Amino acid sequence: PPPTAHPSQLRPATAVGVCPGLRLVTNAYRPTSLLPEVIKNLLIINGLFFLAQVVIDGLPALSGPMLDWLALWPVGTPEVARSGDGVAAVPQFYPWQLVTTAFLHGGIWHLVFNMYGLFLFGAGVERTLGQRRFLILYVGAVLGAGLLQLAVVSAPFVAGVGSPSIFPTVGASGGLLGVVAACAILFPRDEIYIIPFPFPIQMRWLAAGYVVLDLLGGFGAYNSRIAHFAHLGGFATGALMILFWRGRLPFRPRTRLA
User: Fold this and answer.
1) CB 229 within 8 A of CB 218
2) Kindly report the CA angle at 219 between 213 and 222, in degrees rounded to 5?
3) Do 21 and 120 meet the contact criterion of CB atoms below 8 Å apart?
4) In DSSP terms, which residues pair with 109 in a beta bridge?
5) Distance of CA 46 to the CA centre of its chain
6) Could you read off the pLDDT of 207-235 as tens digits, one per residue?
7) Phi/psi at 236 (nearest 5 deg)?
8) CB atoms within 10 A of CB 74
9) In whole angstroms, what is the distance from residue 48 CA to residue 139 CA?
10) What's the predicted TM-score (pTM) here?
C-alpha cells in the first residue's frame, strides 16, 4: 500500500489533490475522489443558478429579477435614477445579497473560470480541512468579500466619499480568493503552472501576485470591471480563518489545525 503522508509534504512534479488540485502522485498521496463533496455541490449549485439566470434574466443581463434581488447593490442609493430611457427604479440592498451574489455570474466564462479555480485550489484544501471547516471557510470568505465590497461601493452614497456609481456585484471570486489564501498558507511551496508562464509558480508567490494586482486595480492603477475589493475581502477573511484554526492568532480555537 502507498505510504501515508500529509498533502503539504508532497511536492511531485505532476499531481492530483495537492492544493493545486491537478496532480497525480505515484506511490504517495492518492485521494479517494477527484471531486470533494463540498466543491462538487458548490459547482452544481452555481451551475443551476447560472441556468436560472439565462432563463429568467437572459445574458448578458443589465437588469432582471435575479440580478435586481440577488446581486449585491450599494447601500443608500436613491429609489429612482435617470437612465438612457428616462427614469428607472434602482435595485436596493438587502442583507441576503451578501451571500446570493456569490452564486450569480456575468457570463459563461465568468462562471467557468471561477468554478475551475475553486476546484483547482480548493480540492486539497477541502481534504485537509474536512467538509465542515471548508464550507465555513468558503462562506466566511464570501461574507468577508461582500462586506468589504459593500463598504467601498456604498461609501459615496452613505459618507460622500468617492464618485457615486450604481452597479451590481456578482460572482464567486470572493469565496475563491479565500480558498486561494488558505491554499497558500497550507501549501506555500506547492507549484502550479499558470498560462502564459512557461514555468511553475509556488502558491505563496501566486497568492501574493493576486493581492498586488487587486490592490493596484482597487486603487485605480488600471481600469477594469473586476470587484477588486471583494477579492481582497475574501482573501483576508480566508487567511485569518486558517491562521485562527492553526493557533497563530492571539485568540485560539479549542482544536488546532496541524
Assistant:
1) yes
2) 60
3) yes
4) none
5) 13
6) 999 999 999 999 987 777 899 999 999 99
7) -60, -40
8) 25
9) 18
10) 0.84
